[in-house]
Amino acid sequence: MIRTMxxxxxxxxxxxxxxxxxxxxxxxxxxxxxxxxxxxxxVLARRPDIAVIDLDLVPDSVGRSSGDLPGLWALHHTLxxxxxxxxxxxxxxVVLGPMLAGQRPGLGFLAKDGPPERLVAAVRKVAxxxxxxxxxxxxxxxxxxxxxTLREKQVLSVAAEGVPVPEVADRLxxxxxxxxxxxSRVIGKIGARTRIExxxxxxxxxxx
Length: 208
Known about the structure:
The protein has helices at residues 11-22, 39-46, 69-78, 93-100, 116-127, 135-142, 150-159, 165-172, 176-190, 195-205; strands at 2-7, 27-33, 50-54, 83-88, 107-111, 132-133. It is of the alpha/beta class. Helix 4 crosses helix 6 and helix 7 crosses helix 9 (176-190). The longest helix has 15 residues, at 176-190. It is elongated, with a radius of gyration of 19 Å.
């Protein structure tokens, strides 16, 4: 049995999703919540195999619910013992682009307006440790513009060669502090954990 938690701010939609999933013999909805703040405590208390979460619940760096990429990264790492299926709108593909660029086991992305059978299939796959990427979100993400400024692209492109920060600064005629600031902003923008990961994400997304 796949123990499933639902986190969605809309009670009506949350109830409809629960109805669809509970109708399946191998899926059991063990918790329904409507706020981001309840997610971690509910996962610890109910021990679901998978959490189905509305991206709009995820707060940004200043606490607003906006589906922020770093916030989603943080949540994914916090729920390390629980797989995560994120429900998103196509308009959020600008934010999701970097995460959609690579497949990660136990992490899935599904369009909110997809058919019920796609939701059921996604829950089963993600709960089983498989990555899920909704084709509608992928297509939308590929059409989005890079979130990086021209200077950030330049700094990251040089850094991608594996050279140290002082050399990046020399080539671009910038101070080392400015280069470090640009790299820090890039890492934050695309939800990477390190400079190397930022390079990989940007290259996979076609931004550098």
